[in-house]
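call fold(seq) -> tokens
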Amino acid sequence: MDTTKKQVEKNIVELATFYVGDALCGMDILQIQEINKLMMMTKVPQAPEYVLGILNLRGQIVTVIDLGKKLGMGETEASPDARNVIVNSTGSSVGLLVKKIGDVVAVDMVNKEHSPANMSGIQGKYFTGVYKRDNSLIGILDIDKVLGIDE
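ret:
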């Protein structure tokens, strides 16, 4: 395999896409532990309003946040299409409630563009960039910023 082809393959990332409100967002599929339907949660007293509660996922405690609320796009409705995207971050698992799941899309990160300051009503600080498709934009979520890890 020549070095040019290896370089191209290094820049290709598979994004799992999902909707937060009407905005199409994505994140590296390697950051996702699993995706599941809504489960019974226990409310957490005095938690921020975007924290929906905690759930027991096969013996592991997972904090579930409403990604729409966290990103300032309003509450995510608990519909049949809504899903929890479970991500691993700094040794613990967090569930992100999203409106619905999209496709897995292979993107060349060389073509990633800077996020606009305000993308579909979402603050650009939560994104590493955007990827343009033929008929849509995918906001590439920076999960560490969403969870407040590197602020």
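The chain has one domain: 13-146.
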